[in-house]
Amino acid sequence: MTTWIDACAAEEIDQEDVVRFDHAGRTFAIYRSPDDEYFATDGLCTHEKIHLAEGLVMDDTIECPKHNGRFSYKTGEARGAPVCVGLKTYPVKLEGDRVMIGIGA
Amino acid sequence: MSNDAGIIIVGAGECGARAALSLRETGYPHAITLIGDEAHLPYERPPLSKQMLLAEATPQAPTVLNDIMLGERAIRHIGSASASAIDATGKQVILSDGRELAYDRLLLTTGAAPRRLPNVRANARILYLRTINDALALRPWISADMHVAVLGGGFIGLEVAASARNRGARVTVIESQERILKRGVPEQIAETISSLHRRNGVEVKCGLTVSEIDADDRRVSISLADGTEVTADVLVVGIGAQPRTELAAQAGIAVDNGISVNERLETSVADIYAAGDCCSFPHPLYGGRRLRLEAWRNAQDQGILAAANLAGAARGYDAVPYFWSDQFDHTLQIAGLVDEGRTVVRRDLGDGAFILFHLDDGQRLVAASGVGYGNRVARDMKLSEMLIARQVVPPLDALAADANLKSLLPRAA
């Protein structure tokens, strides 16, 4: 069962950018794409557990601030060395001006 | 022409391992043999001066290639083996145990070795840091009851100093130049790093050459040119590295501050390539200036490019040189070549973090260097790297102010 969590206000995230969201001991990264869609992934890089929210969003890619591992934040797919393990993604919906992310029970 | 002999890679560090992985990712069908002189499977070196030293329990460096990955990809790894000769005419590599291995194409990723102190007898209290075994040998020395002396205020020395201080050791850094990080790092950044070390209790002594080093089984004593002496439990030497070119030179391959390669990473001998710390290459962003880089990212990227070219592509290497260092809770990053800059524009990012933009005579961005807490400078540094790659001539006020660097980037519609 999916539990929907209120993560942040929609305007808190700039276009083509990312913010960090911590909830119940876990950390997530929430993205706003260049065409104003919202996405969510695990917050830590699969390489050395660095917070991805300090990285750079370009198009549909998030790049880790530390060692430049790249992922698609839409699918979680790893896109090149040094990362080989993909990111877990989470469903996102907008309720009014709030960004809600769905996490498994 | 038969490709059946496959590809041999000599050197199983980041660069060689990445090349082997990348060859398979791009579908190379023939044999791949990766020869390394260490017993370990290929691993990442950056943690050796940081996490490997900081960890309470004996840690493992992250492997780049483990047994399962080697098996799945049919990559043959020969460890604890050194190549003693290349027969470029017969296309064979001869190992020190006499084995002869045939190749169709050969990649040299022999890396670099720490520069040794001349005229100093080996002693268990004088240590260098390059390999996992070096890191394991160093670990017992960096604890609260030890005094660690570090010779050389470069990246290795300073990272070891920070790790040792974090573990509670007393630490003294000795640098012969008038300041730390003299090579390739702007003075403002070096000053920030220097005060970071002093604030954390590291004693930093600059402008002092060593006149004598005397070690026995109880201590190391370093006599300095000003007549003072540092007596420590251990001395870690970080005075630079030298490319490992002996094998190439002996095979008649041109060497010029590293194994000399062209932009496609081809050496002067047919079917032999070189990549990573061991090679020098012309960089198209800097007018073909010949560079040799000792950096993780360069090792990775050149390994990947060499793989593509070994498999038949003919791509040139044009990645922006990039380097980072973690010390205490700060990260320093450099993109491009600082010494190509003539003017500097500073952007402050808060909490003491800042980036320097280095522009050439034509106001083109040729380098950026930044330092700050955590990953504070990472995002703007990444954008700077992209601006450097695209040879952007940015408006100076946009660099200094709070404007989004992304807006300076030429982008496809």
From TrEMBL, chain A:
Gene3D superfamilies referenced in this protein's UniProt entry, alphabetically: Rieske [2Fe-2S] iron-sulphur domain
Cofactor(s), by name: [2Fe-2S] cluster
Domain Rieske: 5-101
Highest taxon listed in the record's lineage: Bacteria
Keywords: 2Fe-2S, Dioxygenase, Iron, Iron-sulfur, Metal-binding, Oxidoreductase
GO molecular function, one term: dioxygenase activity
UniProt-listed NCBIfam families: MocE_fam_FeS
Family (UniProt): Belongs to the bacterial ring-hydroxylating dioxygenase ferredoxin component family.
UniProt protein name: 3-phenylpropionate/trans-cinnamate dioxygenase ferredoxin subunit
